[in-house]
């Protein structure tokens, strides 16, 4: 099984009946949809048209698609109307994708507006779960989403080096 599929499978197993779950756009979160149980009722909030369309055949999952300006590179919405809409959401968990995880730079991505949206989505969830493939560890992109303490859980495939492992442990971030 590929790294992204393994991470996605672990992430899907964290969802519980009745939760309000924010799912970020991205390839790993897209893979996560294939592992969602068809008999589990919960609500998905997403700013990704791709994620919303991927949930059409899940009759027990309510889908709230947050609109805004479409950022075509990542297939997610951004902008003022999107930020206003998410201010009305109180989610249990947010599954966030990033392009970099670094002990001092924190969680990063390659687009400024996308970084602001990811931070805002995280602020609307009781827990933020960051899904990270190995190539994104110990790297930093141009725009900061937030410090490592933004996450409650990090899902990775493989072993973490000592520095990043200690940085996560000191901030009481669970690693799956």
Mean pLDDT level: 95
Strand order of the largest sheet: 3-2-1-6-9-11-12
Low-confidence stretches: none
| N-to-C series of helices and strands | HEHEHEEEHEEEHEEEHE
Q: How much helical structure, as a percent, in the residues?
A: 25-40%
Organism: Rouxiella badensis
InterPro entries: Carb_Metab_HTH_regulators, DeoR-like_C, NagB/RpiA_transferase-like
Pfam families: DeoRC
Keywords: Repressor
Short description:
The protein has 176 residues and is α/β, with parallel strands linked by helices.
Structure description:
This protein has 176 residues and is α/β, with parallel strands linked by helices. The chain has one domain (3-175): Rossmann fold. The chain has six helices and twelve strands. The chain has helices spanning 3-12, 27-32, 49-54, 80-86, 112-123, 162-170; strands spanning 20-23, 42-46, 61-65, 69-71, 76-78, 91-97, 100-102, 106-109, 125-132, 143-146, 153-156, 174-175. The strands form three sheets. The protein has a seven-stranded parallel β-sheet with strand order 3-2-1-6-9-11-12. A three-stranded antiparallel β-sheet has the order 7-8-10. A two-stranded antiparallel ribbon has the order 4-5. The two termini are 16 Å apart. The model has no long low-confidence stretch (mean pLDDT 95).
């Amino acid at each position: 099984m590929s790294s992204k599929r393994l991470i996605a499978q672990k992430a899907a197993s964290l969802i519980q009946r009745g939760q309000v779950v924010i799912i970020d756009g991205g390839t790993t979160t897209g893979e996560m949809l294939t592992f969602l149980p068809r008999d589990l009722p919960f609500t998905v909030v997403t700013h990704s048209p791709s994620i919303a369309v991927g949930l059409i055949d899940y009759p027990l999952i309510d889908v709230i698609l947050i609109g805004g300006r479409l950022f075509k590179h990542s297939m997610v919405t951004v902008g003022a109307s999107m930020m206003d809409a998410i201010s009305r959401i109180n989610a249990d968990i947010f599954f966030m994708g990033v392009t970099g995880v670094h002990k001092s730079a924190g969680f990063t991505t390659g687009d400024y507006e996308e970084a602001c949206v990811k931070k805002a989505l995280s602020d609307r969830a009781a827990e933020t779960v960051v899904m990270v493939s190995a190539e994104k560890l110990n790297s930093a992109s141009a725009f900061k989403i937030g410090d490592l303490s933004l996450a409650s859980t990090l899902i990775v495939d493989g072993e973490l080096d000592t520095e990043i492992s200690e940085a996560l442990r000191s901030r009481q971030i669970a690693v799956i």
